[in-house]
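Hi V.,

Quick status before I head out on leave. The structure for the redesign project is tokenized and pasted below; the design run finished overnight.
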């Protein structure tokens, strides 16, 4: 082997070593590069998620650095930005540095938002997060305050409609009380309202005002009319009720004329109801939210329009970020491509929440039209994407696109999102907006520009919480219903009083009419029958006699004779309502004389009762009649109309009144065999005298 060959092999070995070292180094570099790519890919979602929260927190921290109270411009119907000074004044009550964020409810759901804002701001103090209704979260950083207990107090002690300003006021007051008192107050609130009970609402709604108007209308006509109908009826019923004493009226004096008093009172009642109802139903608004000003209603529209004038994609900085940098770049590229295409034009994408309390009342079409007006009426496709709910709406203003078929029939998976989009924090808006741009690229072009009509008008935000007047709407129809209700109540009251009258008649039965006595009076009455009839006749006589101011000598004589036996019952241990101590003969005398007293008071000049059966009532004439079935014994007796005209001679013994024995009712005797009743055929005057003499002798 020559020296040249050896040098060649040596050179080849050196080259091989050199190539191996290079390959090893390249392999090491490739391995490290792969590891870096893997680590970066694994870290990208976390970084993206952190960037989403961090972007929102950075914006809010910047706002708090300017002013410690930040009120969103997205809730002007509920809590306008002009209320920020009121929040700042209340925050001074806490005694510590207080930072307040008032944001839409869905924008405050991100975990650790206050922590992120505090880290960005870098200042200790009390951080309070609020939505459109109340305090939702409060955290103290570097200060000793009962933030959690104060939030509990504000949540439990107030109803849902109290409003965020009143909620923050209650929160600040609890903070100012200190830890001990705030904790006790929170525990008391939990015990009182922790079982599902809530404090009463502070405001009423339009339906409640309608009910108030109807109730007022019913009262204005119903109450006075019911007075005019019911008062005279009840007055007459009371005077004529069973057992009622008659009114005393002096002779020669006419009844005073006071018919005008009741109508005057009814009219005064109607006027009083009309004047007092607005004082009772004094609510004027249905919500705690103050009326927004024009600057409040235009603040968000101006902000969005300014952003779209600089960039066709505007992402709301108050909301969590839903498009990463790559998705945002791709969306810009798609927009530029469509704008430069044939028949294309500008595209404006507003990633802004659509909330019922915003200036557009959550109406995407009204929002898009308002933003377009703020942009000077610039034509183009306006896409409204809600970063909180994930909804997408597309509107074409002035471009030659067949959007009626393309945009009105967007798949629900694009407009509202599917189940996968609902589970994602970003609602997959990046992918769905890319699909929308794909549909937009494929939309047929038209010769005539397409522009939708005016959007449906939203409720006036300044007056939407104003309650209608009390004397409005249902009030007028209720006036007629009030009259019907008064008639109905009057009918019900009359029915109830009728039932009461029947019950009183059972307790205070009225005596039988005189014309019916001959037909219904028994010939052999029982002792309970005599007692019940005597009691009824005493009540009727006492009611008819009254004070005796108008009684003549005849009626007074009969009345006093009757009361002699009643007094005898009282002296024997009974009463005017309990005649058990009297003999059957005395009960018959009471019945006869009580009826005679009422007859005299009524102007009847009858002086005797039927001698066959004194319970038959007044006598018409006298006649000889058989009084026994044995023999032919006759007596001259006064007879009632039935006994005189409708009774055969042989029937008189069967009609003759017999009295039951005091101890054995089966032992019956003719009434005239009792000494007390022997004077009945001689007339009422002699009967009364005989009663007095008998009682005096006893």
């Amino acid at each position: 082997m020559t020296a040249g060959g050896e040098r060649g092999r040596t050179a080849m070995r050196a080259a091989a070593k050199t190539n191996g070292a290079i390959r090893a180094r390249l392999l090491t570099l490739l391995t490290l590069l792969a590891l870096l790519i893997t680590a970066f890919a694994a870290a990208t979602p976390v970084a993206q998620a952190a960037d989403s929260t961090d972007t929102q927190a950075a914006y809010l921290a910047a706002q708090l650095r300017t002013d410690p109270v930040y009120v969103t411009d997205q809730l002007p119907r509920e809590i306008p930005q002009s209320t920020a000074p009121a929040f700042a004044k209340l925050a001074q009550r806490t005694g510590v540095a207080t930072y307040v964020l008032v944001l839409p409810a869905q924008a405050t759901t991100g975990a650790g938002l206050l922590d992120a804002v505090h880290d960005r701001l870098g200042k200790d103090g009390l951080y309070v997060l609020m939505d459109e209704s109340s305090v939702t979260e409060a955290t103290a950083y570097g200060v000793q305050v009962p933030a959690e207990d104060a939030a509990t107090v504000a949540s439990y002690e107030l109803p849902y409609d109290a409003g965020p300003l009143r909620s923050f006021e209650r929160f600040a007051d609890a903070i100012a009380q200190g830890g001990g008192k705030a904790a006790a107050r929170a525990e008391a609130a939990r015990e009182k309202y922790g079982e599902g009970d809530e404090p009463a609402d502070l405001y009423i709604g339009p339906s409640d005002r309608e009910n108030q108007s109807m109730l007022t209308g019913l009262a204005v006509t119903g109450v006075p009319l019911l007075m005019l109908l019911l008062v005279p009826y009840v007055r007459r019923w009371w005077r004529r009720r069973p057992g009622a004493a008659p009114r005393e009226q002096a002779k020669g004096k006419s009844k005073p004329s006071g018919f005008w008093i009741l109508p005057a009172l009814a009219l005064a009642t109607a006027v009083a109801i009309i004047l007092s109802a607005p004082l009772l139903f004094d609510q004027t608004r249905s919500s705690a939210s103050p009326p927004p000003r024009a600057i409040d209603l235009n603040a968000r529209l101006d902000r969005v329009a300014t952003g779209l004038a600089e960039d066709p994609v505007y992402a709301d900085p108050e909301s969590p970020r839903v498009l990463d940098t790559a998705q945002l770049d791709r969306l810009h590229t798609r927009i530029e491509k469509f704008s430069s295409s044939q028949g294309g034009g500008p595209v404006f994408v507003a990633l802004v929440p659509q909330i019922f309390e915003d200036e557009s009342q959550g109406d995407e079409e009204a929002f898009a039209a308002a933003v377009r007006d703020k942009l000077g009426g610039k034509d183009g496709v306006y896409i409204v994407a809600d970063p909180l709910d994930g909804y997408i709406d597309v509107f074409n203003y002035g471009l030659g696109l067949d959007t009626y078929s393309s945009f009105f029939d967007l798949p629900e998976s694009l407009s509202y999102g599917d189940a996968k989009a609902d589970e994602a924090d970003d609602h997959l808006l990046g992918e769905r907006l890319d699909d929308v741009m794909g549909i937009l690229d494929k939309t047929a072009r038209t010769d005539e520009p397409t522009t939708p009509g005016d959007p449906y008008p939203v409720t006036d935000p300044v007056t939407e919480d104003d309650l209608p007047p009390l004397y409005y709407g249902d009030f007028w129809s209720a006036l007629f219903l009030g009259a019907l209700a008064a008639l109905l109540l009057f009918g019900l009251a009359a029915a109830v009083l009728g039932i009461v009258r029947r019950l009183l008649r059972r307790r205070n039965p009225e005596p039988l009419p005189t014309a019916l006595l001959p037909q219904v009076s028994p010939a052999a009455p029982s002792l309970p029958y005599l007692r019940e009839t005597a009691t009824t006749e005493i009540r009727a006589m006492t009611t008819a006699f009254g004070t005796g101011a108008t009684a003549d000598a005849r009626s007074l004589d009969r009345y006093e004779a009757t009361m002699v036996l009643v007094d005898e019952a009282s002296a024997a241990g009974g009463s005017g309502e309990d005649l058990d101590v009297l003999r059957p003969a005395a009960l018959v005398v009471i019945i006869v004389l009580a009826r005679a007293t009422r007859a005299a008071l009524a102007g009847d000049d009858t002086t005797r009762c039927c001698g066959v059966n004194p319970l038959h009532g007044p006598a018409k004439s006298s006649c000889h009649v058989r009084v026994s079935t044995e023999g032919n014994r006759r007596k001259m007796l006064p007879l009632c109309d039935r006994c005189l005209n409708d009774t055969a001679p042989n029937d008189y013994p069967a009609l003759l009144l017999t009295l039951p024995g005091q101890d054995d009712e089966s032992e019956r005797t003719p009434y005239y065999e009792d000494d007390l009743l022997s004077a009945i055929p001689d007339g009422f005057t002699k009967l009364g005298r005989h009663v007095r003499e008998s009682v005096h002798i006893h």
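Above is the designed sequence. Residues 1-51, 248-254 have pLDDT under 50 and may be disordered.

G. will cover questions while I'm gone.

Best,
W.
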